[in-house]
Amino acid sequence: MKLLENNIIRLRALEADDLNLLFNIENDPQFWEVSNTLAPYSRQLLGQYLKNSGQDIFEAKQLRLVITKKEDETVLGLVDLFDFNPHHQRAGIGILIMKKHQHKGYALNTLEVFIRYAFEHLDIHQLYANIPVSNKNSIRLFEKFKFIEVGIQKEWIKVKGQFQDVVFMQLINPNHP
């Protein structure tokens, strides 16, 4: 089995053909609450982002990969490594599965593959996730992989005019010194 796949999903780099995918996801207000987006992105700006997306993770401090179904390369969503800090060997992780592909195990498979990649290939000591307390499915997903709740960020995000708490979850690499 290759590093960025399992029997169900494959993670791949962003490509120029992904402009429409990014445009649709980044401009969907339902995702803005967790991404800190306040206004739509232009195709031109996203095209520029795609041109720079091949930048080395140590330079960009982030990595975004496209989640695809292994059997037919159907695009399922995106997975992000963000706030990468090579000195402290930690990074945040975020997963977005498009609505029509949710509740089919793709997030579970993505997290399995991405944790392995982060720990074994990038030598990350710890991963963390910020999850709105109302997103019980995501909290359970991360708990399945032994992420633990280490705190609550009170009134951390604003959703539909109301402030909402966010669970801060962390996973320490068990094989890291």
Number of helices: 6
Q: Strand sequence of the main sheet, in spatial order?
A: 1-2-3-4-5-7-6
- Beta content: 25-35%
State the CATH architecture of the domain at 9-124: 3-Layer(aba) Sandwich
State the order of secondary-structure elements, H for helix, E for strand: EHHHHEEEHEHEE
The overall average pLDDT, rounded, is 86
Q: Main beta sheet, described?
A: 7 strands, mixed
Salient structural properties:
Aminopeptidase, 6 helices, 31% helix, alpha+beta, 34% strand, 177 residues, 7-stranded mixed β-sheet
Would you write up a description of this structure?
- With 177 residues, the chain is an alpha+beta fold.
- It has a domain of 116 residues: Gcn5-related N-acetyltransferase (GNAT) (Aminopeptidase), CATH 3.40.630.
- The chain is 31% helix and 34% strand.
- A 7-stranded mixed sheet has the order 1-2-3-4-5-7-6.
- Helix 5 links the parallel strand 4 and strand 5.
- Helix 1 crosses helix 3.
- The longest helix has 16 residues.
- It is globular, with a radius of gyration of 16 Å.
- The two termini are 26 Å apart.
- The model has no long low-confidence stretch (mean pLDDT 86).
How would you sum up this structure in a few lines?
This protein is of the alpha+beta class. The chain has six helices and seven strands.
Helices and strands in order, then pairings?
Layout: E1 9-13, H1 19-26, H2 29-35, H3 43-52, H4 57-60, E2 63-69, E3 75-85, E4 90-97, H5 106-121, E5 126-132, H6 136-144, E6 148-159, E7 162-172
Parallel strand pairs: 4-5
Antiparallel strand pairs: 1-2, 2-3, 3-4, 5-7, 6-7
